UniProtKB/TrEMBL annotation:
The keyword Transcription applies. The keyword Transcription applies. This is LacI family DNA-binding transcriptional regulator. Keywords: DNA-binding, Repressor, Transcription, Transcription regulation. It holds the Pfam family LacI. GO terms for molecular function: DNA-binding transcription factor activity; transcription cis-regulatory region binding. Gene3D superfamilies: 3.40.50.2300, lambda repressor-like DNA-binding domains (1.10.260.40). InterPro entries: HTH_LacI, LacI/GalR-like_sensor, Lambda_DNA-bd_dom_sf, Peripla_BP_I. Residues 8-68 form the HTH lacI-type domain.
Amino acid sequence: MAKKTKKVTLRDISEKLGLSTAAVSKALRGHEGISEATRELVLETARTMEYKGVPEQSPDAAPNAVVFIIVNRRELKEPHTMSTYYFIDNALKTHGCQVAIHGVPIDGDDQAIFDLIERDNPLALFLFGRFSQKFAEQLQATGKIMIVIDHDFPSMNFDVVLTNDNQGAFAAVRHLVHLGHQRIGYIGDNSLSPTFHDRYNGFIDAIRYWGLELNEKHIYDLHFINSFGDIDYSPVMERLDADDLPTAFFCANDPIAYILSNGLNARGIKVPEDVSIVGFDNLESSQFQYPPLTTLDYPREHIAQTAVELLVWRMHHPQAPCRKILVQPRLVERKSTAIPHKPAL
């Protein structure tokens, strides 16, 4: 029986050349910080050792290459996550790539993902959603191409694809203003993610643009991360002052809008007759709410295609400056918004 040949890994190459595995990976991917002479040496050594991860020109030229999608473990089975994964998977398949999705803790405290990166040598890493900056830095140190989706690390250089959250919030307020609302509130959590903070800023910009009163009592900057690290939206109704309500609310995402709408209706405050509500993300369930939710559409399919196109571009331009691509969301008008109710005289 023939002896099975041991698969060559990045560590094997690094030990042979006396380089770190991060340096070897960067050399193979053409990243900055590696001299041309070292890159050529690493490539030649990898070919000699019959290492299977020697890069081709593009994903199209590397059939069956694997791309890792790394997701916060707590959000792995969320509808937003699975829907986006579906579209990324479809987009990568057109380039002959395989996709593997991995759930890890938000702080990245899990050596297993780094072992998998070492073992499987993925073509690229798609980092989807919220993670700590420390974890993002550790992933960057592997030397892999990284595309960040639906999140941002303002102090770091990454290729990023996300919605134009500021403009989406502006569009939500514009819709309410056109209906005749002048007292508009906001519910979100500015500390949850940069995207939530951008949606808040877009709301504030729109209120000022339309010359409306900025009533601090109607702005709820809540904290949705509980002591277990889970997202808990119960503070929406716990903190809401039902005796002092605006005629409309813009909510930073659809789940917040669901809680608000259900909670108001349960208290006899009708949506949209008494209070109009706009959400953000256009989750599939938003159309089945009572009443169906007006919301900003998160263009998942377009974002997935854009992220894959960015990956292809990055492979051809490894030294180019990082890109941040903003995709404009679209307002989906349903029955949770209406002309403000005017009390009888």
